[in-house]
Amino acid sequence: MPTVSQFTSDPALETHLFWNQYKAPIIAVAVILVLGGLGYVGYQVYSARRTADSTALLDAAKSSQDYQQVIERYPKSDAAASAYLLLGEQQRTDKKYAEANVTLHKFIDQFPQHNLITTAWMGIAANLESLGKSDDALTTYQKIATDYPQSFNAPLALMAEVPLFKAKNKTEDARRVCETILSQYRESAVANEAVREMMSLPKPAAPAMVPPKPTEAPIPMARPPEDNPTPAATP
Description:
The mean pLDDT is 82. The termini are far apart. The protein has ten helices and no strands. By secondary structure, it is an all-alpha fold. Helix 5 packs antiparallel against helix 6 (117-130). Among the domains are: 19-114, no CATH class; 138-202.
């Protein structure tokens, strides 16, 4: 007669017993894994389809209304980010500078980590210049160079400061900016332009030479009287 140990050592029997005891949780976990896998695959398919649709819509866009449609239908997509920039450029072309800046600020708010964030700021600064707000434009260019010193727009922003300083007759500030470009961005595309601008600036005035004070001849001191004057000779 088989013993208990002989029954429990049978792998087939052990598997059967294990299945009977845990089949409900095993089935539940399997269902969850299958549904999870299907959900992930479905999300990937949905994302790919949405990306393709948004890209196709952007490719077909030709007007401000078309770009706005991309933004409204796919607000968080890469296509929407590009649509913001293209819409801002279209508005600038139409000389709608204030509207263009509203669009570019929305882009910055929606996509603060986008790799073209400095391009949006450059557009804002250029629009401010077109609106005659040179002080605000200068501040924006300075922000780009300070906050994003490693970006490809940093030397361009510095270069854009030069004519604004020159218009204010701040030649020394303009010279300082050119020197910054030549020291920090010597390999940039604007380095040669910085050299030309610096050479065109008036040379700094030499400090006035103060003539030395003439040395005055010392006034001879009177000879002090002698304590025991020699008596005059008696004739």
